[in-house]
Amino acid sequence: MSTDVAIDIDQYSINIAKGLIMDTVRNADSGHTGGAFSSLDYTYTLFKEFLKFDPDDPQWKDRDRFVLSAGHESALLYAMLTFIGWLDVEDLKKFRQLGSRTPGHPEREITPGVEATTGPLGQGVGNAVGMAVSECILRHQFGEDVMNHYTYCLHGDGDIQEPVAQGAIALAGHWGLGKLINYYDANNAQISGKVTRSDSTDYVKLYKANGWHVQEIDGHDLDAIRDAIRQAQMEIEKPSVIIGHTIMAQGCATMEDDHNTHGAPLPPEEIAATKEKLDLNPEDFFQFPSDVVEDFRKGFDFARSEVAAWNLALDTRMEDADFSKKWNTAFGDTLPQFDVPAYEAGQKVATRKVWGPFIEMLADCHPTLVGGSADLEPSNVTAGFANLVGDFTQENRLGRNFAYGVREFPMGTINNGIALHGGLDVFGATFFVFSDYERPAIRLRALQGLPVVSEYTHDSIFVGEDGPTHQPIEQLMACRAIPNLLVLRPGDANEALVASRIAFEQTSRPALVLLTRQGLPVFDRNTYPPAEEIRKGGYVMQDCDGEADVVIMSTGSEVWVALEVADLLVNCKVRVVNIGSWELFDEQSEEYRQAVLGDDSTLRVSIEAGVTLGWEHYTGINGLNIGIDSFGESAPGGEVANHFGITPEKVVEKIQKRLN
């Protein structure tokens, strides 16, 4: 085939893709057309000529990753996946419909070939950085013969305006991720009008200032696109960005460069006129001719030979027992076994102090464990981990600690990308009050079932002198409100060990481990049930003879308070229940939960240093919920607790008042 013919078939195929995009969005009467058009020339060229994948297995481990951070351009990605054969035209006809494989924004595990549920703008950029980090570490751990691929990310004007994207870009440049290639579809259009209404940032300078290799091209020139991708692939010391200057809704009959095409279907008359302009039949919908399919897939035989060679290389490497063990640890679901010494009763230990030795011992036997703190290593007790495994840097690709700086949200999106890539287990750490910064990433993490672990310390008003800005009040209930998120708030050091292990055992949901700044008494497990009972989420910590008059429920640093309250209520029969994880407790049988909570006619009392809203889930409408329904105060932790009535004596007063 001559070059001219090749260009012709490519342009024809791109026009066919535009027809599919128009029909997909119009048929759903909902979606985004304009941006999909402006990004299409690049995406088509990338998918057809450069992207490495297994046509028969969308999950092949050494595939190139493509992240659509501009998730509203989903019709673009679905068209490309139809060209590959992982979707079909019938899927396009069900765009944005209940139960389809083509939801409004791409969702991982619903649609083959979708690498990440990016959703709100900006997060996909961080996801791509995390994937590139994973590829880099795994390539240096296992070798280029089994791990060697690129990560491509497509973002638009809206993505780059989100600070989370800029934070991730800064880290990618700092780390020198040479196999990360971004494409910035700069079409100067947003839902509300031209980008220039709200932004005059020089993004060439921004990318360069953050250590990226930058190219500017005409995003509709196929040869310029090819050359730019090749140059980006040859840059090995810096991440690359190709800034494609494009036209919103490029190719439309009368609505080119119209921002109104961003978030709406094209009018039927515009679709008909555009199809005529593109030499398509305006009376034919969802056109997908066989010659276009055959041309796009003509490289599939070579792709399959690449996969076969990779499989052979992996099989050969797996004959080595050490490699095999390490590979299976990386890509399996089983946590390595290791023992952490228990803490002795009578000590007073801040539960955050448990994290350090736990994570260091896990790192010793888990070579693909990675993680980092958002500039709080001493407070999060992750400095020992950092010293043990080394920082991941341009000079140390085997480092497994990430010095995230003060970037909680980028940390969250990058950790999501690491989990999405596969091969590394990952954790992040910061103060619990700063989970608000990371929350959008936690939400998408839970939605995707990503087993990322978050260690949050300083989990209550006992932060003390730092005051209400740093004292979590509503964060605990806010996190419990996120579906598919495991929240663990252990009551002493030994429970913290178990909770940390539970968090890393998860395979299909993220986990938060909430730990204290202040020391807590280590419970005598000869008197109280074993710490392993926290695996049930809730359990009877201390019981009474016969039916209880009062059932006191508490979590974390308030468990010892509940136990002292029980001792002070001398004229009552009191049961103390430790509910260290609502999610685990609610997963137990109804019979077990009823046995723990007792008769619902009993006065049920909750004690927790946070908002009381939500505790009626267990205490019922007649229960007594003791907590803090205002912001905190700046004072030593004990004084703050006394001020808010979270002390044994003041809790007793409240219970006796209710009983009387």
What does this entry look like structurally?
With 660 residues, the chain is α/β, with parallel strands linked by helices. The chain folds into three domains: 30-248, Rossmann fold (3-Layer(aba) Sandwich); 348-521, Thiamin diphosphate (ThDP)-binding fold, Pyr/PP domains (Rossmann fold, 3-Layer(aba) Sandwich), CATH 3.40.50.970; 535-659, Rossmann fold. 43% of the residues lie in helices and 14% in strands. The protein is built from 26 helices and 20 strands. Strands 10-9-11-12-14-13 form a six-stranded parallel β-sheet, with helices on both faces. Strand 19 (603-607), helix 24 and strand 20 (624-626) form a beta-alpha-beta unit. Helix 1 packs across helix 3 (74-84), helix 2 (34-50) packs across helix 9 and helix 14 crosses helix 20. The protein is elongated and about 90 Å long.
Mean pLDDT: 96
| Global outline | elongated
CATH topology of the largest domain: Rossmann fold
The rounded distance between the terminal residues' Cα atoms is 92 Å
Number of domains: 3
Topology (SSEs and partners):
Layout: H1 3-28, H2 34-50, E1 65-68, H3 74-84, H4 89-93, H5 123-142, E2 151-156, H6 157-161, H7 163-175, E3 180-186, E4 189-190, E5 193-194, H8 203-209, E6 213-218, H9 222-234, E7 240-245, H10 268-277, H11 290-296, H12 300-317, H13 321-331, E8 348-350, H14 352-365, E9 369-373, H15 377-380, H16 383-389, E10 401-403, H17 408-421, E11 425-431, H18 435-448, E12 453-457, H19 475-480, E13 486-488, H20 493-505, E14 511-514, E15 519-521, E16 538-542, E17 550-554, H21 559-568, E18 574-579, H22 582-586, H23 590-597, E19 603-607, H24 616-619, E20 624-626, H25 637-644, H26 648-659
